[in-house]
Protein backbone atom coordinates (compact mmCIF):
# COMPACT_ATOMS: atom_id res chain seq x y z
CA UNK A 1 0.00 0.00 0.00
CA UNK A 2 1.34 3.43 -1.00
CA UNK A 3 1.30 6.21 1.58
CA UNK A 4 0.75 9.91 0.98
CA UNK A 5 4.37 10.64 1.74
CA UNK A 6 5.90 12.27 -1.30
CA UNK A 7 7.39 9.49 -3.41
CA UNK A 8 11.05 9.77 -4.30
CA UNK A 9 12.00 7.95 -7.47
CA UNK A 10 15.64 8.91 -7.09
CA UNK A 11 15.74 7.31 -3.65
CA UNK A 12 14.15 4.13 -5.03
CA UNK A 13 16.70 4.00 -7.84
CA UNK A 14 19.58 4.60 -5.45
CA UNK A 15 18.37 1.86 -3.09
CA UNK A 16 17.99 -0.59 -5.98
CA UNK A 17 21.41 0.23 -7.42
CA UNK A 18 23.08 0.05 -4.00
CA UNK A 19 21.57 -3.35 -3.22
CA UNK A 20 22.44 -4.65 -6.69
CA UNK A 21 26.05 -3.47 -6.43
CA UNK A 22 26.40 -4.81 -2.90
CA UNK A 23 24.92 -8.13 -3.94
CA UNK A 24 27.28 -8.31 -6.90
CA UNK A 25 30.16 -7.37 -4.65
CA UNK A 26 29.43 -10.11 -2.14
CA UNK A 27 28.81 -12.76 -4.80
CA UNK A 28 32.28 -11.95 -6.13
CA UNK A 29 33.61 -11.99 -2.57
CA UNK A 30 32.19 -15.44 -1.79
CA UNK A 31 33.37 -16.71 -5.18
CA UNK A 32 36.88 -15.51 -4.37
CA UNK A 33 36.77 -17.30 -1.02
CA UNK A 34 35.57 -20.48 -2.69
CA UNK A 35 38.50 -20.30 -5.09
CA UNK A 36 40.97 -19.66 -2.27
CA UNK A 37 39.65 -21.89 0.51
CA UNK A 38 38.21 -25.34 1.12
CA UNK A 39 36.01 -24.82 4.19
CA UNK A 40 33.41 -22.21 3.30
CA UNK A 41 29.95 -23.83 3.27
CA UNK A 42 29.33 -23.65 7.03
CA UNK A 43 30.25 -19.98 7.35
CA UNK A 44 28.07 -19.03 4.38
CA UNK A 45 25.11 -20.82 5.97
CA UNK A 46 25.77 -19.14 9.32
CA UNK A 47 26.14 -15.74 7.68
CA UNK A 48 22.89 -16.17 5.74
CA UNK A 49 21.08 -17.17 8.94
CA UNK A 50 22.44 -14.09 10.70
CA UNK A 51 21.31 -11.86 7.84
CA UNK A 52 17.82 -13.38 8.02
CA UNK A 53 17.69 -12.82 11.76
CA UNK A 54 18.81 -9.22 11.33
CA UNK A 55 16.11 -8.62 8.71
CA UNK A 56 13.27 -10.22 10.65
CA UNK A 57 14.21 -8.99 14.12
CA UNK A 58 15.93 -5.67 13.33
CA UNK A 59 13.30 -3.69 15.26
CA UNK A 60 13.82 -5.72 18.45
CA UNK A 61 17.61 -5.67 18.09
CA UNK A 62 17.68 -1.88 17.68
CA UNK A 63 15.32 -1.30 20.59
CA UNK A 64 17.37 -3.54 22.86
CA UNK A 65 20.62 -1.85 21.89
CA UNK A 66 19.18 1.63 22.48
CA UNK A 67 17.47 0.72 25.79
CA UNK A 68 14.07 1.39 24.27
CA UNK A 69 10.73 -0.20 25.06
CA UNK A 70 7.33 -0.12 23.41
CA UNK A 71 4.91 2.19 25.23
CA UNK A 72 1.12 2.09 25.19
CA UNK A 73 -1.10 5.13 24.71
CA UNK A 74 -1.68 5.47 28.46
CA UNK A 75 2.05 5.89 29.08
CA UNK A 76 2.72 8.46 26.33
CA UNK A 77 -0.59 9.94 25.14
CA UNK A 78 0.94 13.01 23.45
CA UNK A 79 3.50 10.95 21.57
CA UNK A 80 0.85 8.49 20.41
CA UNK A 81 -1.40 11.40 19.42
CA UNK A 82 1.23 12.87 17.10
CA UNK A 83 1.97 9.48 15.51
CA UNK A 84 -1.77 8.79 15.08
CA UNK A 85 -2.31 12.14 13.37
CA UNK A 86 0.67 11.76 11.03
CA UNK A 87 -0.25 8.19 10.07
CA UNK A 88 -3.80 9.31 9.31
CA UNK A 89 -2.57 12.16 7.11
CA UNK A 90 -0.03 9.89 5.41
CA UNK A 91 -2.55 7.02 5.07
CA UNK A 92 -0.10 4.44 6.38
CA UNK A 93 -0.23 1.73 9.08
CA UNK A 94 0.70 2.93 12.53
CA UNK A 95 4.03 1.51 13.71
CA UNK A 96 4.77 0.53 17.27
CA UNK A 97 5.72 3.52 19.41
CA UNK A 98 8.71 3.21 21.72
CA UNK A 99 10.66 5.37 24.13
CA UNK A 100 14.34 5.14 25.05
CA UNK A 101 15.46 6.34 28.46
CA UNK A 102 18.62 7.88 26.97
CA UNK A 103 19.18 11.59 27.54
CA UNK A 104 20.75 12.02 24.10
CA UNK A 105 18.07 13.84 22.06
CA UNK A 106 17.37 11.64 19.06
CA UNK A 107 14.88 9.40 17.26
CA UNK A 108 15.00 6.45 14.91
CA UNK A 109 12.75 4.09 12.96
CA UNK A 110 13.40 0.48 12.13
CA UNK A 111 11.55 -2.58 10.86
CA UNK A 112 11.37 -4.70 7.74
CA UNK A 113 8.20 -3.07 6.30
CA UNK A 114 5.42 -0.58 7.24
CA UNK A 115 3.41 -3.37 8.90
CA UNK A 116 6.34 -4.42 11.11
CA UNK A 117 7.99 -1.18 12.14
CA UNK A 118 8.74 0.78 15.27
CA UNK A 119 9.40 4.48 15.82
CA UNK A 120 11.42 5.31 18.91
CA UNK A 121 12.22 8.64 20.55
CA UNK A 122 14.50 9.31 23.50
CA UNK A 123 13.50 11.02 26.71
CA UNK A 124 16.07 13.67 25.87
CA UNK A 125 14.24 14.45 22.64
CA UNK A 126 10.84 14.65 24.32
CA UNK A 127 12.17 17.10 26.91
CA UNK A 128 13.76 19.44 24.40
CA UNK A 129 11.33 19.81 21.49
CA UNK A 130 8.18 21.87 21.03
CA UNK A 131 5.10 20.04 19.66
CA UNK A 132 5.54 21.26 16.06
CA UNK A 133 9.24 20.31 16.15
CA UNK A 134 8.38 16.84 17.48
CA UNK A 135 5.85 16.45 14.67
CA UNK A 136 8.55 17.25 12.10
CA UNK A 137 10.98 14.72 13.57
CA UNK A 138 8.34 11.98 13.73
CA UNK A 139 7.22 12.72 10.16
CA UNK A 140 10.86 12.33 9.11
CA UNK A 141 11.10 8.94 10.81
CA UNK A 142 7.76 7.74 9.44
CA UNK A 143 8.89 8.65 5.93
CA UNK A 144 11.80 6.22 6.35
CA UNK A 145 9.24 3.50 7.03
CA UNK A 146 7.00 4.55 4.13
CA UNK A 147 9.93 4.69 1.70
CA UNK A 148 11.09 1.24 2.93
CA UNK A 149 14.66 2.52 3.16
CA UNK A 150 14.83 1.33 6.79
CA UNK A 151 14.82 -2.30 5.65
CA UNK A 152 17.30 -1.56 2.85
CA UNK A 153 19.81 0.18 5.10
CA UNK A 154 19.43 -2.61 7.69
CA UNK A 155 20.24 -5.33 5.16
CA UNK A 156 22.98 -3.29 3.48
CA UNK A 157 24.71 -2.45 6.76
CA UNK A 158 24.65 -6.06 7.92
CA UNK A 159 26.43 -7.28 4.80
CA UNK A 160 29.59 -5.71 6.19
CA UNK A 161 29.21 -7.85 9.31
CA UNK A 162 28.90 -10.94 7.11
CA UNK A 163 32.07 -10.02 5.24
CA UNK A 164 33.93 -9.69 8.52
CA UNK A 165 32.63 -13.05 9.72
CA UNK A 166 33.67 -14.75 6.49
CA UNK A 167 37.15 -13.26 6.65
CA UNK A 168 37.64 -14.21 10.29
CA UNK A 169 36.57 -17.79 9.63
CA UNK A 170 38.80 -17.98 6.56
CA UNK A 171 41.77 -16.58 8.46
CA UNK A 172 41.56 -18.98 11.39
CA UNK A 173 40.74 -22.01 9.25
CA UNK A 174 43.91 -21.42 7.29
CA UNK A 175 46.01 -20.48 10.30
CA UNK A 176 45.02 -23.36 12.57
CA UNK A 177 43.61 -25.87 10.13
CA UNK A 178 46.71 -26.01 7.99
CA UNK A 179 49.11 -27.82 10.28
CA UNK A 180 52.13 -29.03 8.44
CA UNK A 181 51.34 -26.92 5.41
CA UNK A 182 52.04 -23.45 6.71
CA UNK A 183 54.16 -22.66 3.71
CA UNK A 184 54.42 -19.83 1.26
CA UNK A 185 51.22 -20.99 -0.44
CA UNK A 186 49.23 -20.65 2.79
CA UNK A 187 50.68 -17.20 3.42
CA UNK A 188 49.77 -16.18 -0.12
CA UNK A 189 46.19 -17.44 0.32
CA UNK A 190 45.80 -15.53 3.59
CA UNK A 191 47.20 -12.37 2.01
CA UNK A 192 44.81 -12.69 -0.95
CA UNK A 193 41.83 -13.20 1.37
CA UNK A 194 42.72 -10.12 3.41
CA UNK A 195 43.24 -7.95 0.32
CA UNK A 196 39.93 -9.02 -1.22
CA UNK A 197 38.06 -8.55 2.06
CA UNK A 198 39.55 -5.08 2.60
CA UNK A 199 38.49 -4.03 -0.90
CA UNK A 200 34.96 -5.41 -0.39
CA UNK A 201 34.60 -3.69 2.98
CA UNK A 202 35.85 -0.33 1.65
CA UNK A 203 33.53 -0.36 -1.36
CA UNK A 204 30.48 -1.47 0.63
CA UNK A 205 31.25 1.14 3.32
CA UNK A 206 31.24 3.96 0.77
CA UNK A 207 28.10 2.68 -0.99
CA UNK A 208 26.17 2.44 2.28
CA UNK A 209 27.29 5.87 3.47
CA UNK A 210 26.28 7.49 0.17
CA UNK A 211 22.82 5.89 0.34
CA UNK A 212 22.45 6.86 4.00
CA UNK A 213 23.18 10.54 3.32
CA UNK A 214 20.70 10.68 0.45
CA UNK A 215 17.93 8.92 2.36
CA UNK A 216 18.17 11.51 5.15
CA UNK A 217 17.66 14.33 2.64
CA UNK A 218 14.75 12.40 1.10
CA UNK A 219 13.14 11.95 4.54
CA UNK A 220 13.54 15.67 5.30
CA UNK A 221 11.82 16.54 2.00
CA UNK A 222 8.96 14.09 2.55
CA UNK A 223 8.38 15.24 6.14
CA UNK A 224 8.43 18.91 5.17
CA UNK A 225 5.85 18.38 2.42
CA UNK A 226 3.61 16.17 4.58
CA UNK A 227 3.46 18.58 7.54
CA UNK A 228 3.68 21.76 5.46
CA UNK A 229 6.04 23.19 8.08
CA UNK A 230 9.66 22.77 6.96
CA UNK A 231 10.66 25.57 9.36
CA UNK A 232 9.67 23.40 12.35
CA UNK A 233 11.87 20.57 11.09
CA UNK A 234 14.72 23.03 10.54
CA UNK A 235 14.28 24.33 14.09
CA UNK A 236 14.42 20.78 15.48
CA UNK A 237 17.55 20.01 13.48
CA UNK A 238 19.32 23.14 14.69
CA UNK A 239 18.31 22.61 18.31
CA UNK A 240 19.23 18.91 18.45
CA UNK A 241 22.55 19.32 16.66
CA UNK A 242 23.57 21.98 19.17
CA UNK A 243 22.39 19.96 22.16
CA UNK A 244 24.16 16.78 21.02
CA UNK A 245 27.41 18.73 20.71
CA UNK A 246 27.21 19.45 24.46
CA UNK A 247 26.79 15.81 25.49
CA UNK A 248 30.00 14.11 26.77
CA UNK A 249 31.73 12.28 23.91
CA UNK A 250 32.00 9.03 25.90
CA UNK A 251 28.19 8.90 26.09
CA UNK A 252 27.90 9.52 22.35
CA UNK A 253 30.36 6.78 21.41
CA UNK A 254 28.03 4.12 22.79
CA UNK A 255 25.37 5.31 20.35
CA UNK A 256 27.62 5.95 17.36
CA UNK A 257 27.23 2.40 16.00
CA UNK A 258 23.59 3.25 15.21
CA UNK A 259 24.30 6.59 13.54
CA UNK A 260 22.80 5.47 10.23
CA UNK A 261 19.40 5.03 11.91
CA UNK A 262 19.29 8.31 13.85
CA UNK A 263 17.48 11.51 12.97
CA UNK A 264 20.71 13.37 13.58
CA UNK A 265 24.13 11.74 14.06
CA UNK A 266 25.76 11.29 17.46
CA UNK A 267 28.80 12.95 15.92
CA UNK A 268 28.17 15.54 13.23
CA UNK A 269 29.42 15.36 9.65
CA UNK A 270 32.91 16.80 9.28
CA UNK A 271 33.95 19.01 6.38
CA UNK A 272 36.22 17.87 3.56
CA UNK A 273 37.06 14.31 2.57
CA UNK A 274 35.72 12.87 5.83
CA UNK A 275 32.19 13.73 4.66
CA UNK A 276 32.46 10.65 2.42
CA UNK A 277 32.41 8.55 5.59
CA UNK A 278 29.45 10.32 7.21
CA UNK A 279 26.03 8.69 7.56
CA UNK A 280 24.27 12.07 7.34
CA UNK A 281 24.51 15.18 5.18
CA UNK A 282 25.79 18.29 6.93
CA UNK A 283 23.44 20.47 8.93
CA UNK A 284 24.00 23.22 6.35
CA UNK A 285 22.84 20.96 3.50
CA UNK A 286 19.71 19.94 5.36
CA UNK A 287 18.81 23.49 6.37
CA UNK A 288 19.44 24.78 2.84
CA UNK A 289 17.08 22.16 1.39
CA UNK A 290 14.38 23.00 3.95
CA UNK A 291 14.75 26.72 3.19
CA UNK A 292 14.21 25.95 -0.51
CA UNK A 293 11.06 23.96 0.31
CA UNK A 294 9.79 26.82 2.50
CA UNK A 295 10.21 29.21 -0.43
CA UNK A 296 8.47 26.78 -2.81
CA UNK A 297 5.50 26.29 -0.48
CA UNK A 298 5.23 30.05 0.00
CA UNK A 299 5.27 30.68 -3.74
CA UNK A 300 2.59 28.02 -4.28
CA UNK A 301 0.36 29.57 -1.63
CA UNK A 302 0.56 33.18 -2.87
CA UNK A 303 -1.56 32.84 -6.04
CA UNK A 304 -4.38 31.32 -3.98
CA UNK A 305 -4.32 34.25 -1.59
CA UNK A 306 -4.33 36.72 -4.42
CA UNK A 307 -7.44 35.07 -5.88
Fold blueprint:
Layout: H1 9-36, H2 41-65, E1 68-70, H3 77-90, E2 96-100, E3 107-113, E4 116-122, H4 123-128, H5 131-147, H6 149-177, H7 184-227, H8 230-245, H9 249-253, H10 283-306
Parallel strand pairs: 2-4
Antiparallel strand pairs: 1-2, 3-4
Main location: membrane
Active site: 141
Membrane topology: Multi-pass membrane protein
User: What spatial order of strands do you see in the largest sheet?
Assistant: 1-2-4-3
Strand content: 5-15%
Share in helix: 55-70%
Q: Roughly how many Å apart are the termini?
A: 36 Å
Q: Compute the number of helices.
A: 10
Task: Please tell me what the overall shape is.
Answer: elongated
Give the biggest sheet: 4 strands, mixed
Query: Could you name the ranges where pLDDT drops below 50 across 5 or more consecutive residues?
Result: none
Query: How many domains?
Result: 1
Structural class: alpha+beta
Count the beta strands.
4
Topology as a string of helices (H) and strands (E): HHEHEEEHHHHHHH
Round the mean pLDDT to the nearest integer and report it: 79
Radius of gyration: 22 Å
Family: Belongs to the peptidase M48B family.
GO molecular function, one term: metallopeptidase activity
Pfam families: Peptidase_M48
Subcellular location: Cell membrane
Can you describe this structure?
With 307 residues, the protein is α+β, with helices and mostly antiparallel strands. The protein has one domain. It is 68% helix and 7% strand. It has helices spanning 9-36, 41-65, 77-90, 123-128, 131-147, 149-177, 184-227, 230-245, 249-253, 283-306, and strands at 68-70, 96-100, 107-113, 116-122. Helix 8 runs antiparallel to helix 10.
